[in-house]
Write a structure and sequence with these properties.
mainly alpha, 0% strand
Length: 58
């Protein structure tokens, strides 16, 4: 499920609706396990905009 509230004030209502939806999808809570991500390649850190050679500052 991917969801994004249109306003931050609506985030609690969106969370409540998603929580109510989970049992209908037969989704069970599980502990978070990030170990599976350990073997993924790490992205490079992007250079800051002031280091971009092609950027023209006004």
């Amino acid at each position: 499920i991917a969801a994004w509230p249109t306003k931050l004030a609506l985030a609690p209502l969106l969370a409540e609706r998603i929580i109510a939806l989970l049992p209908t999808l037969d989704v069970q809570p599980q502990p978070l396990n990030l170990q599976m991500l350990a073997d993924w390649p790490r992205p490079e850190i992007a250079p800051p905009p002031w280091d971009w050679e092609h950027l023209q500052w006004s």
